[in-house]
Amino acid sequence: MILLEKPSFQSLLLESRFGNTVLSRATGFIVNRPSGTPLLITNWHVVTGRHIQTRKPLHDHAAIPDRLAIFHNTQGLLGTWNVKVEHLYASGNPLWLEHPTHGSNVDVIGLPLTDISNIDLFPYDISNPTGHDVANLPAPMKWGVSDFVNIIGFPFGWTGGGALGIWVQGAIATEPKIDYENLPRFLIDSRTREGQSGSPVVIYKRNGWITLEDGRAYMIHNPITQLIGVYSGRLTKDSDLGTVWKTSILSDIANSGYPGTAM
């Protein structure tokens, strides 16, 4: 039996499409919400096909996606994938949810899933606002500037075999408790590429001593994962500095997100 690390198959390969034409590839992952169907988390610019700041189309021919293909894990057959296509609009209105306060200024959306038949979902736990996704820890891990993180997604649309995510490492570049440019985000220093938009950013520890937020040292014997944000791309094409949106926005969107905007 081949054992896979859970974050490798929690990241989902996405294709933004216009009709049957693939416009781009990106990354997403699943979270649950208090009521309603689970949400696919990815970036606003992935579903709109527009630059988050200029709002201009990203595609060379100004094509705008109208659906999203999601490479889900097949039910009971880990290592195989079931592609589901979710429409992005109904009667011209966006179907995704945005942040209740910042709206589309936050480059993260939640798309309610309409077809979850014959697939297995492996959601990240966002019930704790710190992003603590670790069972049996007495407190979240302590983390901050200069710590290493993993961005698990699909650079250039490449996969780690089948539709498994590729792990790329980076380091936290700004103080994560300080909002970068007055929005709930911080920066990382990492060699990321297109296709990794929407990737979960995690701290992953296989075993050994870790430090908890309350200052205690704690020994772990099994791998643990702490989701700390959603990646949305580099500041410029010439920079290795990229944006990570804080996990607090996921709870905001899941609990009280409002219908999205396409511009």
Description of the molecule:
It is a single chain. By secondary structure, this protein is mainly beta. It contains three helices and 19 strands. The strands form five sheets. Strands 1, 2, 3, 4, 5, 9 and 10 form a seven-stranded antiparallel sheet that branches. The longest helix has 9 residues, at 248-256. The mean pLDDT is 92.
- Using only C-alpha atoms, the radius of gyration works out to 17 Å
Class of secondary structure makeup:
mainly beta
**Count of discrete alpha- or pi-helical segments spanning 4 or more residues:** 3
Q: Average pLDDT value? A: 92
Oligomer: single chain
Shape by Cα distribution? globular
Q: Major β-sheet, in short?
A: 7 strands, antiparallel
- Tell me how many strands there are: 19
Please indicate the percent range of residues in DSSP E strands (runs of 2 or more).
35-45%
Helix content: under 10%
Uncertain segments: none
Topology as a string of helices (H) and strands (E): HEEEHEEEEEEEEEEEEEEEHE
Euclidean distance between termini CA atoms: 48 Å
